[in-house]
């Protein structure tokens, strides 16, 4: 015997579907409203991206930090320096009189360009000897160096127009030789591969540590762990040390592949690189641990890690030239561990830099690690009380 479905029951079923769906929708909105961290991330992420790309990112950087090795203080030499500054690409911060100081400024990354004006320069120009003026560029970041090097052609005419000739000179009485140091072929792989070491370590160390601690809390195993005779600092170190080894494996893989497949050189001391990489890994793990004490679940831990990672890749000099950013963006970048580690890894691998050249960035990493660990331990103890 067949049963015939009453039309009213079908209508009730359809209305029931929409009613239940509407109830579920309201429930999700209420839950989202209660999860203030996730709601804040929804608003802050697009706003942060818009502000950073709109105000901080500049692919044609100007006013790049420069130094001059001034072996002759003459009117023509000063005119050449003024003409270089008038291109808006060079900003002279240092004046040195020793070749070693000149090289150290480039190796440490304090300047991107160095201009050498030789002794007897103006006299040679007036005699018609066509002396050469050297412009050394730190080409580890080809984007920052290429536009500035391309502007050198107009400098000769600008300088001579004020000092020796009215109008264009009949022939160029001196030449500017641009020397791209550390990456003369402007190969992008030499810039990107060392940067990837820091970028990948930042992402994985932050996320691994933040999720590791938060997972213990969600599963309820943290209470059992803390019931044991163990101190919060010991819990922190026990959580951090395994990931230091993980970070070493990742760094070894990236550098090894970069050397074997892309021909990236390693000119500096590998032991120094290993020590400073350990410091960088510990700094990121401390920040990840701090994030884990601020959130309530793994989703929030992931969201907050990405909130820290986004400005790190945009303001550290990995994707865009650091020296071309506005002053406020550079101040923010200096507070990010990745900014200092990128200078360290590129300087050791591509320039053969020593600890003397890198002491500022090493001290900055140590300070950031100390601050992050202090906050993490303080927050962790507070959650136990």
From TrEMBL:
Domain (ABC transmembrane type-2): residue spans on this chain: 154-383
Q: Which UniProt keywords apply?
A: Cell membrane, Membrane, Transferase, Transmembrane, Transmembrane helix, Transport
Pfam families xrefs: ABC2_membrane_3
- InterPro entries in the record: ABC-2_transporter_component, ABC2_TM, ABC2_TM_bact-type
| Membrane topology of the entry | Multi-pass membrane protein
User: Which Gene Ontology molecular function entries are recorded, alphabetically?
Assistant: ABC-type transporter activity; transferase activity
User: Which compartments does it reside in?
Assistant: Cell membrane
- Output a single Gene Ontology CC term carried by this record: plasma membrane
Bilayer-crossing residues are 37-57, 192-213, 240-264, 270-295, 307-329, 362-380
Protein family (similarity comment): Belongs to the ABC-2 integral membrane protein family.
User: What is this protein's name?
Assistant: Mannose-1-phosphate guanyltransferase
Q: From which source organism is this entry?
A: Bradyrhizobium betae
């Amino acid at each position: 015997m067949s049963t015939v479905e009453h039309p009213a029951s079908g209508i009730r079923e359809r209305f029931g579907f929409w009613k239940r769906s509407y109830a579920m929708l309201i429930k999700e909105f209420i839950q989202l409203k209660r999860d203030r961290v996730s709601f804040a991330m929804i608003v802050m992420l697009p706003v942060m991206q818009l502000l950073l790309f709109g105000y901080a990112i500049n692919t044609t950087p100007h006013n790049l930090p420069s130094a001059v090795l001034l072996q002759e203080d003459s009117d023509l030499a000063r005119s050449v320096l003024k003409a270089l500054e008038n291109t808006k690409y060079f900003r002279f911060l240092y004046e040195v009189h020793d070749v070693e100081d000149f090289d150290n400024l480039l190796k440490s990354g304090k300047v991107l360009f160095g201009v050498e004006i030789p002794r007897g320069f103006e006299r040679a120009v007036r005699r018609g000897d066509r002396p050469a003026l050297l412009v050394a560029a730190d080409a580890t970041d080809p984007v920052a160096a290429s536009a500035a090097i391309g502007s050198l052609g107009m400098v000769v005419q600008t300088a001579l127009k004020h000092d020796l000739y009215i109008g264009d000179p009949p022939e160029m009485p001196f030449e500017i030789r641009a020397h791209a140091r550390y990456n003369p072929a402007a190969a992008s792989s030499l810039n990107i591969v060392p940067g990837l070491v820091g970028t990948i370590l930042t992402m994985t160390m932050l996320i691994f540590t933040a999720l590791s601690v938060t997972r213990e809390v969600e599963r309820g195993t943290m209470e059992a762990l803390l019931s044991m005779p163990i101190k919060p600092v010991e819990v922190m170190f026990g959580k951090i040390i395994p990931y230091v080894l993980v970070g070493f494996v990742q760094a070894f893989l990236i550098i090894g592949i970069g050397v074997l497949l892309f021909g990236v050189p390693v000119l500096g001391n590998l032991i120094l690189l290993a020590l400073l990489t350990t410091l960088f890994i510990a700094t990121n793990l401390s920040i990840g641990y701090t994030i884990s004490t601020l959130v309530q679940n793994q989703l929030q831990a992931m969201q907050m890690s990405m909130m820290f990672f986004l400005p790190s890749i945009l303001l550290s000099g990995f994707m865009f030239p650091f020296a071309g950013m506005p002053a406020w963006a550079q101040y923010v970048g200096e507070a990010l561990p990745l900014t200092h580690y990128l200078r360290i890894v590129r300087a050791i691998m591509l320039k053969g830099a020593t600890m003397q050249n890198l002491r500022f960035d090493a001290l900055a990493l140590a300070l950031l690690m100390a601050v992050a660990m202090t906050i993490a331990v303080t927050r962790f103890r507070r959650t136990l009380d």
